[in-house]
Design goal:
This protein is of the alpha+beta class. Helices cover 26% and strands 31% of the residues. The chain has a domain of 61 residues: Electron Transport, Fmn-binding Protein, Chain A (Pnp Oxidase, Chain A, Roll). It contains two helices and five strands; from the N terminus they run αβββαββ. β4 and β5 form a beta hairpin. The mean pLDDT is 86.
């Protein structure tokens, strides 16, 4: 599979207000439009990174889709091969990267 290096960075409003607000609500257990917090180990630092994501379901399978392209959380998840999806206290394994 050929990987595209395309990446569209989020704007200021998304980065500083929307993502933080959705992540905070999700950590409190309130899922906004199916949101989850993805926890995955950083591919360079080795530290756990957390990002708000939405899980898409199709034919009984769960998918994480990066609408902004080849983001850092995508690269981290592919390198780590595993992560966790969190809503409040509920923790589930993330879908495997493809």
């Amino acid at each position: 599979m050929e990987e595209s290096a395309h990446y569209q960075p989020p704007g200021w409003l998304t980065r500083h207000i929307l993502n933080r607000g959705i992540a905070r609500l999700t950590r409190m257990g309130v899922s906004v439009a199916g949101s989850r917090v993805l926890r995955v180990r950083g591919r360079v630092s080795g530290q756990i990174r957390a990002n708000p994501v939405n899980v898409l379901s199709l034919d009984g399978e769960r998918y994480l889709v990066a609408p902004r392209g080849h983001t850092d959380w995508v690269r981290n998840l592919r390198a780590a091969r595993t992560g966790e999806l969190v809503v409040g206290r509920r923790v589930r394994p993330s879908p495997r990267p493809r």
